[in-house]
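Re: that chain you flagged

S.,

Sorry for the slow reply, it's been a week of failed gels. I finally had a moment to sit down with the sequence you sent. For the record, here it is as I used it:
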Amino acid sequence: FLAYQIGDDNGALVVRRLNAGFDGFDGPPLEVLAEGAANWGDYGITPQGDLLYINNSRVSLLSNRLWDVHLDDASAEEMRGVLPTDGYIMSPRLSPDGRFLAAMFQSSAGSKNIHLVELDRNTGQQITFQHENFEPSFSADGVWLFWTQVSNEKPDTYRIPLDQSSGPQLFLEGAAGLKVSPDGNWMAFTSPDTSGTRLTMRDVRTGQDTVIDSISAFSFPLDFSPDSRYLLYKSDFTNSSQLIVASTDGSEQYTLPNTRGDSAVFSEDGSFLMIEAGRSVYRMPIRISPAFSILGVQQLVLNTPYSSGFDLLGEDRIFVSSAAVQFAEGASTESNLVWRQHWPTFLKEELGQ
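Prediction finished late last night. Pasting the structure tokens below so you have them in one place:
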């Protein structure tokens, strides 16, 4: 049998029986999961032929929510009314003073725009209205909001003052994912390259650029340490993002062992990394002085099904976009892992063979 997904990321999981010569099929594809769509990446088959899949009938990959999570008292509140609900929230990012949160919102119609939330007033507004817009971030002084805009498959970095005293303006041509260090002296961004992407760090004081990574298929800046001495970035070599820490002066580089992550940030005091990976958020103890060092293994903090980014305020408050939030010692999630044993026997019976 060959099992595969048809259509898009939410398409049906189907199965077809291979013929005796293994060069064709006996019969048309048949849908195998009556429970609902099998989202991309949410199923697998063991060497023994058993089927494993996420029963996600109550969780849609086409929508998620923005959560305000307090780790100190294990409370989580959905932020209602600040962003539209008919789409997908990605890459929430906090301003340096914690007053504003910016995020990308992809509507059900497919548009991708940046929205800005004023947290104290619990109000939100749309900032961009054309092309595709991703990865918001802020300047070190909190004056500017940056984001990546893609037009005709070309990325550029735009900015707008938070007080919106003027309109959007081009800031860096051909650059995506801009991150600025807390002291304002360093910028990191990625640019398209012939073999993938090129991660560049710029000394704002001199204008000198240093290429940090030009060999991976996709490299992307994530965060600067609070003392602005280190850049945390992810680098994709084998379809899985490796986390790497590089010093801004070029003297140190560390690959976090056995650690993969979709996004990650330094804590405010530099005592730990918060890492989002595989629908979960982890905490890894570190130090950044006198040099970067890992002090222990990462510990599970949250389960966040269909998460798509987060940011950390202080030491114990997380803003995360996900379908649900479950604390490490909490109740059951909205998704369940199903193990269907002896699946080939079941298929033969279903197909009447």
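What I noticed first: Confidence is low (pLDDT under 50) at residues 57-62.

Talk soon,
D.
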